[in-house]
Amino acid sequence: MVGTVRLAVIPGDGIGPEVVGEALKALAAVTDGSEVSFQQTEFSLGAARYLETGDVMSDDDLAAIAGHDAILLGAVGGAPGDPRLLGANIERGLLLKLRFELDHYVNLRPTVLYPGVTSPLAAPGDVDFLLVREGTEGPYVGNGGAIRVGTPHEVANEVSVNTGYGVERVVRYAFAAASARPRKRLTLVHKTNVLVFAGSLWKRTVDAVAVEFPDITVDYLHVDAATIFLVTDPARFDVIVTDNLFGDILTDLAGAISGGIGLAASGNINPDGRFPSMFEPVHGSAPDIAGKGIADPTAAILSVALLLEHLGLTEQAQRVTRAVAADIAERGDAKRSTSEVGDAVVARLGA
Amino acid sequence: MVGTVRLAVIPGDGIGPEVVGEALKALAAVTDGSEVSFQQTEFSLGAARYLETGDVMSDDDLAAIAGHDAILLGAVGGAPGDPRLLGANIERGLLLKLRFELDHYVNLRPTVLYPGVTSPLAAPGDVDFLLVREGTEGPYVGNGGAIRVGTPHEVANEVSVNTGYGVERVVRYAFAAASARPRKRLTLVHKTNVLVFAGSLWKRTVDAVAVEFPDITVDYLHVDAATIFLVTDPARFDVIVTDNLFGDILTDLAGAISGGIGLAASGNINPDGRFPSMFEPVHGSAPDIAGKGIADPTAAILSVALLLEHLGLTEQAQRVTRAVAADIAERGDAKRSTSEVGDAVVARLGA
Ligand SMILES: CC(C)[C@H](C(=O)O)[C@@H](O)C(=O)O
Ligand SMILES: CC(C)[C@H](C(=O)O)[C@@H](O)C(=O)O
């Protein structure tokens, strides 16, 4: 790839700007002297911006972001319980709005236990799987409501919406991803015995697409059972495909068993390329440690690797991943500042 | 308590009858010579019965079961993928039907890491918490539907229904349970940032009831974050209160970190006493190991302890729990047959 990539950068709140700073240093280092250059536009969005202006993200912001080739996001969200944020839902109004409006129907969350990382599991084995989480449907659609709020007769509903169109496209993506991996295994996770309508749609879709991928071994787990295997035998997983909410839950657990969400990167992908895809660490804004310069920027740097991979800059992506892996292997357990980690990775990229 | 307890026994499928057999041996041993006697009625329900008769549970079965003082259930469900079961949903038609019809609004799932049990966690700490799962609402209500099934235009919805009435009663139960425990801590788990209507109802209810329990320390975790703490610091939990689906997911994970769901007992409680409460191991029917006499009956035996406790037979309940704990401490990691474990516990109860 030769040319200019227009990159929208949303540092966000809390530790977001700190980790994004290091991620951008790594991006600069790995693309330095190459034929691709990144032209960055920074968007000041998040709780801080809401507190200043009273709006979370305007249509103009959204249109401006959509005009870019890709997005790098740090983390958004204010301090939990901050009374000034009660009226706003930064997650829904910003993060989920971007995912939905930019049709990020694949939420890609690789889980790798890097050598040198301490897992809370006594015997994790060889953990290396890809979780493909649906990003635009399920209980995340915001299709709920309540009546008689605040009375004993209150009824609050949440609707999980699942469509043939929406499920098939993410399932196809997951099969293709499994095809490209050596183990060629795909596990559908759902709760078909209880959520019978949505579960049946997911199950039938996987069964139908499986016919076109005869070399992929397919299995199924209920979401409750999947959490068991994630702690007793995570090495059994290769590619997992699941809905938006189950994917949210399982990827935090996956992050935990592979050394913490300080290492977990993610991509919100629009595979059609109609909209820019967005790359972000799985962790949140962590207001409790913000401003101290101690947040681990590794997940943000690995998100840059996913961004490069998505743009077809595979060699650069691999260099970032290798630099991070080498850094973790050598110093992963040491207490280091945010910039120390970033500098160490950059030093390896320069070498 | 003096008198006769009418106990409905539903051994069910797979390993269900095997583990229930041992649980009943323990029940007989601990009540032998006491002033309470158990009069048992066995109900042949489950996949096997469905395959014979074509119905899962009739209204007459339900009425007959409801006429008892308590229920002991083994496990129900046929082999996954058995084509003869495609038309039936044993879980919905039997297990969930019992929970809903008998208004089991508290699904009680204690998690204890017994000394001698190997956890998959490297450093689990002192794990001893009670998960209070709502049992009659949420995405379990069966309030979904689908249109254009099997076409690319299929839409499959699942509705999570939450009511002020339903949430308040289980939250009150959880606060009372926390009051009776030394640490006096309660953690609400939900996903308030995404499921804003249901989440708001749960959050407001906990905040309101908390005012009446000033000695209880209350905190809140998103469900995704809760899975992280369950593997990095499970000792932080005392009482967890959560909805039906999150409770389902978290209790399997809780079972896994405390040595496997072979040890996890549960009670489906109707605290009003209008209907009989039902006690069952958290595990399923495990068709793969059924008939081999190797299933661990410990969870079923511990479910008997919960049953005794519920009936006010606290001393007997404690004897069962102590016998199981002593058995696990001595032989927990040994490979033993189903009846060897049962016999060992019975021997301790006799002593
Ligand atoms: C912040 C929140 C809305 C978000 C989600 O639930 O998707 C986060 O937990 C994640 O996993 O990216
Ligand atoms: C069998 C299934 C319907 C059930 C549930 O989801 O509640 C089980 O997983 C449980 O936890 O008791």
Structure description:
Two copies of one chain form a homodimer. Chain A has 351 residues and is of the alpha/beta class. Chain A folds into two domains: 1-105 and 262-351, Isopropylmalate Dehydrogenase; 119-134 and 160-258, Rossmann fold (3-Layer(aba) Sandwich). Chain A is 40% helix and 23% strand. Chain A is built from eleven helices and twelve strands. Chain A has helices spanning 16-31, 47-53, 59-66, 90-101, 164-179, 196-210, 223-232, 244-257, 298-310, 314-331, 338-350; strands at 3-12, 36-42, 70-75, 106-112, 128-134, 138-147, 155-163, 185-190, 217-222, 239-242, 265-269, 277-281. In chain A, strands 2-1-3-12-11-4-5-10-8-9 form a ten-stranded mixed β-sheet, with helices on both faces. In chain A, strand 11 (265-269) and strand 12 (277-281) form a beta hairpin. In chain A, helix 1 (16-31) crosses helix 10, helix 7 runs parallel beside helix 8 (244-257) and helix 9 (298-310) runs antiparallel to helix 10 (314-331). Chain A starts with a strand and ends with a helix. The model of chain A has no long low-confidence stretch (mean pLDDT 95). One 3-isopropylmalic acid (IPM) sits between chains A (91, 95-96, 248, 282) and B (193-194, 224). Chains A, B: Keywords: Amino-acid biosynthesis, Branched-chain amino acid biosynthesis, Cytoplasm, Leucine biosynthesis, Magnesium, Manganese, Metal-binding, NAD, Oxidoreductase. Chains A, B: One of its GO terms (molecular function) is 3-isopropylmalate dehydrogenase activity. Chains A, B: The record marks 140, 191 as: Important for catalysis. Chains A, B: It is found in: Cytoplasm. Chains A, B: Catalyzes the oxidation of 3-carboxy-2-hydroxy-4-methylpentanoate (3-isopropylmalate) to 3-carboxy-4-methyl-2-oxopentanoate. The product decarboxylates to 4-methyl-2 oxopentanoate.
